[in-house]
């Protein structure tokens, strides 16, 4: 049986969706295929997102910014949007059974020194971690029960 795909969407696919992808992939191990994309991809993964994930031992340096349309011909079991714009622009994907929206501030809009921006990136990372780790625990518990 093939593993279900969970697709995490935000507008730019440069920060929040990559934070969530890295955290969920780490928490759920090999139970699912985890991917992220954007409705208007920025074309890069924000360097401060890579930095704050490395601080917690998760390497997202090889991630790349992708368009959500790249997944329209794939079976996607669950779609999770992490920003309001992506939630509004989100299509229905083939095989989609679940859709969740958990909005987070966009750390890419943080201003100030790099250290001040890092404070925002860490806060958003930690908020995403709480939500996505709890989601992963629920999925793993459900899988054990079935």
UniProtKB/TrEMBL annotation:
- Which residue numbers delimit the Phosphotyrosine protein phosphatase I domain? 4-138
Q: Which CDD domains match?
A: LMWP_ArsC (cd16345)
Q: Which Pfam families does the UniProt entry name for this protein?
A: LMWPc (PF01451)
List, alphabetically, the SMART domains matched. Answer: LMWPc (SM00226)
Keywords in alphabetical order: Arsenical resistance
Q: Name one GO biological process term.
A: response to arsenic-containing substance
Q: What is this protein called?
A: Arsenate reductase
